[in-house]
Amino acid sequence: MRSLITFAASMLFTASVMAADPGVSVDEAWLRATMPGQDSGSMQFSVTSRKAAKLVAISTPAAGAVEIHSMVHEDGKMKMRAVESLALPAGKQVSLRSSGNHVMLLNLKHPLKAGDSVPFTLTVQYADNSKATVEAKAEVRPMGAGHDMKGMDDMKGMPGM
Hints:
This protein has 161 residues and is mainly beta. It has a single domain, classed as Immunoglobulin-like. It contains one helix and ten strands; from the N terminus they run H-E-E-E-E-E-E-E-E-E-E. Strands 1, 2, 3, 4, 5, 6, 7, 8, 9 and 10 form a ten-stranded mixed beta sheet that branches. Strand 1 (24-32) and strand 2 form a beta hairpin. The protein is globular and about 45 Å long.
């Protein structure tokens, strides 16, 4: 019985190590500060996976929901669309920025203040259907920082926009 418990404990430790080190790195994560009453914002970062994978979910305690969006040029306008996942080719950096694929935080629980740090969790899925999570933090930058999102007509109906 003792060896069964030792084996089970070692398997749990191995699983937690695998989840803590999935071979995925996050760089340059940041958010723009928001105004009181604004209930959405965008997060930007780069992600690299050593193995082919796909980004299937993002969560943060700062928002009620997080969505991955793509940008498409349609009828002379840039339009934003939510996507279920985003491919992470092996060894290639994938950027999530306001002018292409990007991340939207919806139903913000409080304003994002410059200088704060916001934790977030990525969930990636590998070809064998195994999943791993990656913990990261995003710096909140002043409102004027970064790139504006002019020409994105679909954002007019979004909360906080």
